[in-house]
Inverse folding.
């Protein structure tokens, strides 16, 4: 695929723990809470690799465009930028470069910038994932586009107020891992029969015993409007992996993008003198959550019907929540970041040799699980023993955002919300990095797809608990520095 984008480099990740506030350069009264939002198109060219399947797919059509959606807020001393991208995830290298550009161009430091992917499975590969690889030129374009979206949001800053609320939509979320009757779980890619659970076991499977975990039906909402009451932005947070429903070859932002379109039309108001309202939907801890009800076979009257149905249901609940929000004009802001070191599950030399033998016998296209995971084993051997990643806390008055750098299991988000001291807590996954699946220690013991060793699930058991502890400590730090408000 030919290059249509510009050239930028990457930088190393930042500080172990940083909290910062920066002066705001403005001719206006800097004690006034201000906010601005913007969205920019990040749709790749047709022919790009689409991430999210075991085999690679090339895009043949654009069903709906992809965006980088930004919300910037400032309290007179600190600016916060939140960027949600219609991507399956974003690698740390691109996040670091985007944050460098944002800091250089706007003065907002990295710890005050949150960049996350939604996890659409019908977007470009922004990093190597199973058999899909990224286009380096698209990544250069993406980094600049993310930074530009923040600059555009800053251009739209104006006196504002914000509020937060909580809704519930439990009909659309299901734990996708199931305990099965003994002897009915298929072998894993290495021929072992130790797994006790199976992901997506199929509709009305008589061997299903029960789900292997909970769900999180919370829909957390942050609403921002100007002092005239005109909507600036609405940020939602909902723990649902993705929905899909097309032919798999069309670029789409999935239900995340459709929710945003509905919210911009339903909650937004038209005023040609003001920038349009921007909606952002972040993904909660949904590494083991999907939209598949195995007790009832899904029949779609047309492609994307279920995606639209889910988006509408979540939007309806969001609109209900928005009707009861109380807005505040004095909202302190703070950003904090902590680096966490995690171990990688490296294959043994024997496992690598066995994988190489499998690949020698395989054809040019790898289709079955042993072949696909043999390739992953060989590539995993090249990974470092340990990696560094980050967790982040963004305080917005009495609300807080806690992040995980990958596909976090739902149990992690539930634990964060349970122990958070803030009035309202958002848990955003795939933020500032994508380390793959983040299963709990118990999940590793049960096995299943999400735990199979690959670049999409490289972490050692205990990594989730390490990230959880770091995130909770960070929330406590931010809460204490705010005076316990």
């Amino acid at each position: 695929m030919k290059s249509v984008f510009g050239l930028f480099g990457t930088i190393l990740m930042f500080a172990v723990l940083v909290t910062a506030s920066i002066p705001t350069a403005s001719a206006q009264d800097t004690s006034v809470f201000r906010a601005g939002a913007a969205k920019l198109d990040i749709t790749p060219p047709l022919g790009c690799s689409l991430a999210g399947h075991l085999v690679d797919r090339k895009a043949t059509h654009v069903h709906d465009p992809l965006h980088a959606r930004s919300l910037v807020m400032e309290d007179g001393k600190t600016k916060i930028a939140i960027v949600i991208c219609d991507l399956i995830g974003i690698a740390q290298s691109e996040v670091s470069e985007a944050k460098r550009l944002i800091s250089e161009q706007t003065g907002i430091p990295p710890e005050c910038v949150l960049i996350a992917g939604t996890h659409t499975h019908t977007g470009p590969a922004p990093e190597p994932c199973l058999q899909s690889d990224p286009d380096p030129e698209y990544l250069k374009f993406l980094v600049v586009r993310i930074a530009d979206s923040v600059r555009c949001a800053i251009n739209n800053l104006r006196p504002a107020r914000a509020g937060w609320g909580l809704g519930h939509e439990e009909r659309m979320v299901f734990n996708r891992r199931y305990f099965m009757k003994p002897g009915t779980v298929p072998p894993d890619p290495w021929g072992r029969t130790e797994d006790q659970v199976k992901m997506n076991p199929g509709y009305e499977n008589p061997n299903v015993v029960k789900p292997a975990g909970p769900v999180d039906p919370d829909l957390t909402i942050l609403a921002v409007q100007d002092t005239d009451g005109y909507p600036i932005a609405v940020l939602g947070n909902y723990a649902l992996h993705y929905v899909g429903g097309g032919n798999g070859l069309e670029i789409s932002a999935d239900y995340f993008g459709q929710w945003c379109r509905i919210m911009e039309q339903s909650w937004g108001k038209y005023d040609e003198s003001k920038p349009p309202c921007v909606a952002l939907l972040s993904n909660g801890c949904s590494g083991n959550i999907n939209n598949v009800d195995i007790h009832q076979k899904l029949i779609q009257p047309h492609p994307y019907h279920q995606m639209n149905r889910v988006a509408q249901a979540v939007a309806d609940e969001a609109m209900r929540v928005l009707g009861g929000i109380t807005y505040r004009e004095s909202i302190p802001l703070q950003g904090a970041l902590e680096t966490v070191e995690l171990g990688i599950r490296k294959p043994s030399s024997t496992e690598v040799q066995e994988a190489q033998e499998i690949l020698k016998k395989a054809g040019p296209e790898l289709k079955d699980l042993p072949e696909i995971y043999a390739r992953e084993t060989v590539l995993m051997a090249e990974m470092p023993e340990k990696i560094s990643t980050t967790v982040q806390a963004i305080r917005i008055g009495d609300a807080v955002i806690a992040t995980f750098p990958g596909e976090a299991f739902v149990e992690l988000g539930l634990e964060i919300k349970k122990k958070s001291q803030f009035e309202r807590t958002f848990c955003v996954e795939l933020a500032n990095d994508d380390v793959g699946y983040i299963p709990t220690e118990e999940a590793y013991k049960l096995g299943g797809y999400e735990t199979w060793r690959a670049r999409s699930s490289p972490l050692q058991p205990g990594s989730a608990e390490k990230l959880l502890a770091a995130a909770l400590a960070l929330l406590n730090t931010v809460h204490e520095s705010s005076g316990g408000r």
In short: The chain has two domains: 17-24+33-176+209-344+383-481, 349-378.
